[in-house]
Amino acid sequence: AKVDSSPESCTSSPKDELYGVTFQVSTSRADFESKYRELHKLGSGGFGSVFAGERLDDACNVIKCFGVQVQNGVEHQLINEVAIMVKVSQGNCPAVVSLLDCYELPEEVILVMERPVPSMDLHDYKEFHGGVLEEEEAKVILRQMVEASIQMHNSNVFHRDLKLKNILVETDHSYPKVRVIDFGCGCLVKEVIKCKKYTPPEWHSSKGYSAEPTTVFHLGALLYSLLHRTSFHTLFYVARIKGFKWGLSEKCRHFLKSCLAENPDDRPSLEELLRYHYSCSASCLTLTAHLCTECRGHKAAHSLFCTLRAAVITCDCHMECTNI
C-alpha cells in the first residue's frame, strides 16, 4: 500500500495486501475537516450513518459514510468496501460511484464518495414514475447494469447485492443514467459466495453459488422488479406463486425466463446478455428521451405520448415538447 511518512497522514491496511489493491487511508481528522464540510444526515444503517457534504475547494457534492470500529481490533466492513471500490476503479468502471477519500480514525472509519446530484435510488425512481416502468425505459437501465456488471467482473469484483436501493439514477440526463453504490456486501469473485439475501435458487439446494450466474439472476430479478408493481422474490417465483404480468412482450418474457432459470447452467453469460436483442442503449428510449427534464418529472401524474420525432404531453406546465 502507499504509505505517507508524515505523522497522522496515511497508513496501510491489511485489506490492501489481502485484495492486492493500493489505496491511501488517512488517519488525520484535521485533514478531513480541511477538505470537506459535513451537511445534513441522509440516513443510517447497520454499519453507520450517511451524511451529505461538499468539498471545500470546488463545492463538489459528496457523501460521508462512517461506522464505529469493532472492539476486537478487526477492521470495519467499510474498509472492505474501500478495497473493492478501488479495485473496480482500477478497471475503469464509470457506472460505479467514485471513492474520493478514506479516513481510519480511532473512533470511526469515514468514506468520502462522489454524490451525483440530482439523483435518486432506483426504488424511488420507480415509485416516482407510478410504481412500474415501461419496457423501453427498463431496457435502457438493464443494458447499463449489464455493462457495469461486466466491468466489475473484469476487475474480479462481484457486487452480491444488486437491488433497486443500491442503484442511483441521475435525473438530469435525457435517459435514466445509473450508478452503482454500496459495496459493503461485495467481495472479490475469487472468494466463495455465501450470502442469503436475494439468493438464486441454487443456494437453497447446494448452499452456495458462483459469481456470474448469480449476477445474471440478479439482473433478471432487477428487470422483473422494474416491470412489476411488486418486487421479485426468489421463493415465490420458483414456487410459481408469482408469474409475469399481462402485457409484457414475448421478447421480454423470454429474456426474464433465461435470466431467472432455476439451473444456473441454463442462464446466459453476461456477454450474451449484452448481445441479446432485448436490451438496448439509451438511443432506443423513445418514451421520455425527447422530453425536457421538467416534463419527464410529470410522467407519474400525467399522460404522455411520444414518437421519435416529437413528444406531446398533457400537463399543466407545457402543452408540447419537441426534440431537444
From TrEMBL:
Residues 36-279 form the Protein kinase domain. Its EC number is 2.7.11.1. ATP binds at residues 42-50, 64, 114, 121. It is an enzyme of class 2 (transferase). Pfam families: Pkinase. The active site is at residue 161. Keywords: ATP-binding, Kinase, Nucleotide-binding, Phosphoprotein, Serine/threonine-protein kinase, Transferase. It comes from the Eukaryota. GO terms for biological process: negative regulation of apoptotic process; regulation of mitotic cell cycle. One of its GO terms (cellular component) is cytoplasm. One of its GO terms (molecular function) is protein serine kinase activity. PROSITE patterns: PROTEIN_KINASE_DOM, PROTEIN_KINASE_ST. It catalyses: L-threonyl-[protein] + ATP = O-phospho-L-threonyl-[protein] + ADP + H(+); L-seryl-[protein] + ATP = O-phospho-L-seryl-[protein] + ADP + H(+). The keyword Protein transport does not apply. PANTHER family: AURORA KINASE-RELATED (PTHR22984:SF11), SERINE/THREONINE-PROTEIN KINASE PIM (PTHR22984). Belongs to the protein kinase superfamily. CAMK Ser/Thr protein kinase family. PIM subfamily. Proto-oncogene with serine/threonine kinase activity involved in cell survival and cell proliferation. This is Serine/threonine-protein kinase.
